[in-house]
Amino acid sequence: GENVEQHPSTLSVQEGDSAVIKCTYSDSASNYFPWYKQELGKGPQLIIDIRSNVGEKKDQRIAVTLNKTAKHFSLHITETQPEDSAVYFCAASLDGSARQLTFGSGTQLTVLP
Amino acid sequence: SQTIHQWPATLVQPVGSPLSLECTVEGTSNPNLYWYRQAAGRGLQLLFYSVGIGQISSEVPQNLSASRPQDRQFILSSKKLLLSDSGFYLCAWRGTSFETQYFGPGTRLLVL
Fold first, then answer.
1. Hey, are the CB atoms on A43 and B90 less than 8 Å from each other?
2. CB-based burial label for B22 (10 Å; 0-12, 13-18, 19+)
3. Interatomic CA distance for residues A73 and B97, integer angstroms
4. Alpha-carbon gap: B34 to the closest alpha carbon of chain A (Å)
5. For residue range A20-52, what is the model confidence (pLDDT) as tens digits?
6. Residues of chain A found within 8 Å of residue B104, distances taken between Cβ atoms
7. CA-to-CA dists, residue A37 to A1, A107, B102, angstroms
8. Does A104 touch chain B (CB under 8 A)?
9. Which residues does chain A have within 8 Å of residue B99's beta carbon, measured at their own beta carbons?
């Protein structure tokens, strides 16, 4: 089955700096890659996603890049703010699979004021 | 628009007691439904998923069970709770025409 590895497990950045979280996946057939943000005590919220026919997607300060050949994808957050502090999860999915998402282990991002 | 509800929000139960957590989805029909457990503040473990009424797939053998008595209702149960059942339980749904899963607010369970 699919295996998703996520690094780093913890990340601290100064406010205004950029943050990058990386994930690798094992199943080359996976074709959908969402990112979730989970604030303390809440359910994960989808923040951005990318499909395998696209190399990059951007939404304001958040961007995701995908390298299908190397089987890795990354989340980029620019101009970080304290409210970006949360746990971030990547996931991979095979289209048509009801079981669907395989999650990474999460990254605790702390933005220092 | 679609919304997903979970209750209760928090629950403290003694070891050996039964459990029933409920999840409901509004604004969609025939969704795929999922139960996850999150221990130690991270890591999402898929417990069960369902593609339709009465159809349950189990991912991890344990003392928990799931049922889907109605199209938009998903229930997580246990006959006798263990200390190791403590955690944050998340329900999620997905429409059949797209891949994205959307999570509910979660139920925090503490077994003492």
1. yes
2. middle
3. 24
4. 9
5. 999 999 999 898 999 999 999 999 999 999 988
6. 43
7. 24, 10, 12
8. no
9. 32, 34, 93, 95, 100
Residues B102, A30: Cα–Cα separation, whole Å:
19
Distance separating alpha carbons of residues B111 and B77, to the nearest angstrom: 14
- Distance CA(A110)–CA(A86), nearest Å, equals 7
Q: Which amino acid is at A36?
A: Y
Instruction: State residue B85 phi and psi, 5-degree precision.
Output: -80, -10
For every residue of chain A, DSSP letters joined together read ---EEEE-SEEEEETTS-EEEEEEES-TT--EEEEEEE-TTS--EEEEEEETT-SEEEETTEEEEEETTTTEEEEEE-S--GGG-EEEEEEEB-TT-SS--EE---EEEEEE-
CB B28 within 8 A of CB B2: yes
- Cβ partners under 8 Å of residue A112, min gap 6: A12, A13, A14, A15
**Consecutive 10-residue runs of chain B (112 residues): their mean pLDDT?**
93 97 94 90 86 90 91 96 94 83 95 96
